[in-house]
Amino acid sequence: MPFGLKNTRATYQRLMDKVFHQQIGQNMEVYIDDMVVKTTSAEGHAADLAEVFSQIRRHNMCLNPKKCVFDVQGGKFLGFMITSRGIEANPENILWTYRCTPQSTMQETPYRLTYGDDAMIPVKVRETSHRRQVFNNEQNTQEIAADLDLIDELRDKAQIHEEACKLRASRRYNTRVRPRSFRVGDLVWRLLGEARRDVSEGKLAPN
Q: Which of 46, 65, 88 is the last residue of a domain?
């Protein structure tokens, strides 16, 4: 199909919907040339893949092996991070936000603790604002030098805030802990490995 036509994307999408109309919404999602085969269990994944490949062979379609990935629990699809827990934030897109947001434990931004100054987004640089209008290069250089002299003090304060936050968290936890003393022969609960939660599931599961 020539991709120079204006309606190529819509035509190709209708073609994919027609080819995989039995799988879409059940065990497969298709958006133009991006396809995802989804399965709730590892045992049924092979059967779902065989069904999709059967449809591909029936319509004489070809796949690019370099773009195919199998047996994964998550990945990027249409710019979003898809995992077994649903749609999650893409770390590549939120890393800058994290670095420029004051942390509750330190009361400072990681950016300022590293570079000794606040970050400015490009919009604030381009658009006319009071901060830009009163900007003086010589005075700014002096203030940057003064901030760098105080960066060690700023980092010490951030460390104090972090230690205080840890202390408050430990005190809050210890108030709910009841001391127990055991003697030989007492019956206790034993933690079995089979009863633990699968490490491949949950919030901290690898993608």
A: 88
Task: Phi first, then psi: give them for residue 78, nearest 5 degrees.
Answer: 60, 35
- For residue 116, tell me if it sits in a domain: yes
Tally of structural domains, the chain:
2
CA distance 14 to 206: 35
| 65 and 131 fall within a common domain | no
> pTM to 2 decimals?
0.40
Distance between the two ends of the chain, CA-based, in angstroms? 35
111 with 99: CB under 8 angstroms? Answer: yes
Lookup result for tokens 């760098």: 148
Q: Which tens digit of pLDDT belongs to each residue from 105-150? A: 777 777 777 766 666 665 555 666 666 666 667 777 777 777 777 7
Looking at 25, 58, 88, the residue that finishes a domain is 88
**For the segment 61-81, what is each residue's pLDDT rounded down to a tens digit?**
888 888 887 877 777 776 677
The upper half-sphere exposure of residue 145, i.e. CA atoms within 13 Å in the direction of its Cβ, equals 6
